[in-house]
Amino acid sequence: MQGNAILGQSGGPTAVINSSLCGIIQEALKHSKAGGIITDVLGMRFGIEGFMNDEVINLGKQQPEIIEGLKTTPSSALGSCRYKLQDKDFPKVLEQLKKYNVRYYFLIGGNDTMDTIHRVEKYCKEQGYDLCGVGVPKTVDNDLFATDHTPGFPSAARYVALSVKQAGMLARDMKRVDQFVVFQTVGRSAGWLPAAAAAAKLNEDDAPHIILLPERPFVLEQFLKEAKAVYNKFGWVSVVCGEGVCYADGKPISASQTADKFSNVEFGAMGGTSAAMVLHRILSQEFGWRGEFQIVESLQMSAADRAVALDIEEAYRCGQRAVQLAAAGQSGVMVTINRLSNSPYKIELGTAPLSQVANGEKPMPDEFICKDKLYVTEQCLDYLRPLIGTLPGYVRFDGSII
Question: How far is CA 350 from CA 95, 107, 240, 321, in A?
Fold first, then answer.
């Protein structure tokens, strides 16, 4: 099946999403230049939404150094969107595919993106149009089903670990002024990113002290008891929370009533507040402490200066693999990363059906979450450390010397 390939990016960016894009483009151009199954390599500007509006560029005409530079360029070079395809859109999508003679369709994104590829491919098959669709995983949340981790998560996890480590040192040394600090990560329903903060901890009094995960209900009495115990021991408290932390009845502690086009709650959006602000208010009102909250939002998605080399390489390989799968006749799948061992760290690339990925999520497993305290287990840290890499060490005075 010979025809053009088209590429797109969807959802929030990561520090390495463009590395996956680079992998797809360079691998597809190999086929194009060799007279293979792929003729031209096209790009959707602003995802499927832009494609329907004829916003398409020829990536094969870009300078090679620009394509290579994507590996270390943050954000989404093609532009992204969060558009949910309606039934009325499919005829238009098929019309566009025919117009540009697209036979190979690649999207980089999360489960909503995999759902888009799956639905488009299914519709084309029903209409008798041959289309090969392959997904490339992407999300900082790390909640994508069927893959050990997603490209983008290691870099975001390192960002969180470094931020909590450094902000924790500041809070420790300023505890006579501010008695607590709350750091909020993204993560709608999975606690992988807040859990990553634990990699920053070397000493008992280091940040973080408390980690609140969306996988466990928020219990006010337990939280206050833990915070008071930490304060009594160290004189200050470091709290890390996921944005999607909820009460036992499923109500987000952020109390947001706003949802996006995929019916996902937009935490901290208009109509609500943020989890970190709520926790700040709770601690201040209960104990009379002064403190601060830190909400970095998209910074953890786009901090190329903290990108992990392993993450860049794996993202690139996933992009390459998507084209190789399509060239081999595989369609309706997403590239997956399968971990073979922690030490030494070793992976292999596999596949998962788009239909499974689109309808599944990957929360943190029970064995990664402490039962007796608001924290994560050593097993969780064994999983995280190879992805985050070695963190810088900092010195502190020996307080026992007089």
Answer: 32, 17, 33, 9
Catalytic residue check, 141:
yes
φ and ψ at residue 204, rounded to 5 degrees: -60, -35
CATH architecture of 3-139+305-358: 3-Layer(aba) Sandwich (3.40)
What order do you get walking across the sheet with 102-109 strand by strand?
Answer: 56-58, 38-44, 3-9, 102-109, 132-137, 333-342, 345-353
Structure tokens at 49: 């939404």
One pLDDT digit (tens) per residue for the chain, 402 residues: 899 999 999 999 999 999 999 999 999 999 888 888 999 999 999 999 999 999 999 999 999 999 999 999 999 999 999 999 999 999 999 999 999 999 999 999 999 999 999 999 999 999 999 999 999 999 999 999 999 999 999 999 999 999 999 999 999 999 999 999 999 999 888 999 999 999 999 999 999 999 999 999 999 999 999 999 999 999 999 999 999 999 999 999 987 544 455 555 554 444 457 999 999 999 999 999 999 999 988 899 989 999 999 999 999 999 999 999 999 999 999 999 999 999 999 999 999 999 999 888 899 999 999 998 999 999 999 999 999 999 999 999 987 777
- For the record, the structure tokens of 402 come out as 């007089």
Residue ranges, CATH 3.40.50.460, the chain: 153-303+363-388
| Short-list 61, 101, 74, 27, CA closest to 312 | 74
Q: Which residues touch 347 (CB under 8 Å, ≥6 apart)?
A: 148, 314, 337, 338, 339, 340
**What token pair was written down for 254?**
């952020």
Quick check: bond before 194 cis, omega within 30? no
CATH architecture, domain defined by 153-303+363-388: 3-Layer(aba) Sandwich (3.40)
- Extract the runs of DSSP E, i.e. beta strands, from 168-327: 180-185, 210-212, 237-242, 291-295
Catalytic residue among 141, 143, 148, 206: 141
Q: Which residues contact 125 (CB under 8 A, 6 or more apart)?
A: 131
User: What's at 378, amino acid-wise?
Assistant: E
Q: Which two tokens stand for residue 298?
A: 């998209």
211 torsion bin: left (phi>0), alpha (psi -120 to 50), beta (else) = beta
